[in-house]
Amino acid sequence: MEYTYKVRQEIPDTESEELARYELDVFGTTKYADQLKDTLPIVISRYMEEAKIGTNKLSRLTGIPKATITRYCNGTARYQEDYLCAICIALRLKPVKQRYLLGRLRHHLRDGIVEHTVRSYIIREYLDGCYYDDSLTVAFCNDRLIANKERPLTKLTSETEGKR
């Protein structure tokens, strides 16, 4: 006897799989309770670990003092938005990870990134492109900011890059 209907096959739920990949990528876990425990120091440390970059190397890549990065990872420092932008660029974070990391601060700092200024446009360009283009570094971002008579993210420039 032949059946005239087809047996329902299990089709993977691509939307939930995509959500799980997103959660793992951004939060490091799919467990909602663990996601709620995420703090800025935990996020910075996790993203540094994923990039396999320690405090010494991150300090060289950003121009941020090693002690400040250590305090950021311990949660004992006051966070500066410019430094967090430099960390995002140096770690070459995906834009979604950058938004998450910077979003952890919004209740502490003003939202200077979305201001319509030359400085914010330059920073946004480097943040948006750093994941895709290795030539977009903190030193070059600072050089471009200085060339446009804007305040740099850190003291690191292409001239001082190798001297630390």
Concise account of the structure shown:
One of its GO terms (molecular function) is DNA binding. The chain has 164 residues and is mainly alpha-helical.
Tell me the span between the first and last alpha carbons. 80 Å
Helix coverage percent: 40-55%
Number of domains as seen in the coordinates: 1
Q: What is the percentage of strand-forming residues?
A: under 5%
SSE pattern? HHHHHHHHH
How would the global form be characterised? globular
Compute the gyration radius: what is it?
20 Å
**E-strand count:** 0
Search tags:
single chain, 164 residues, mainly alpha, globular, Lambda_DNA-bd_dom_sf, DNA-binding, Cro/C1-type HTH DNA-binding domain-containing protein, DNA binding
Secondary structure: elements and pairs:
Elements: H1 14-27, H2 32-36, H3 40-51, H4 55-62, H5 66-74, H6 81-91, H7 95-103, H8 118-129, H9 138-147
Helix pairs in contact: 6-7, 8-9
InterPro entries: Cro/C1-type_HTH (IPR001387), Lambda_DNA-bd_dom_sf (IPR010982)
Domain HTH cro/C1-type: 43-98
GO molecular function, one term: DNA binding
Structure description:
This protein has 164 residues and is mostly helical. It has one domain. Helix content is 55%, strand content 0%. The chain contains 9 helices and no strands. α6 (81-91) runs antiparallel to α7 (95-103) and α8 runs antiparallel to α9 (138-147). Mean pLDDT is 85; it is low at 107-112.
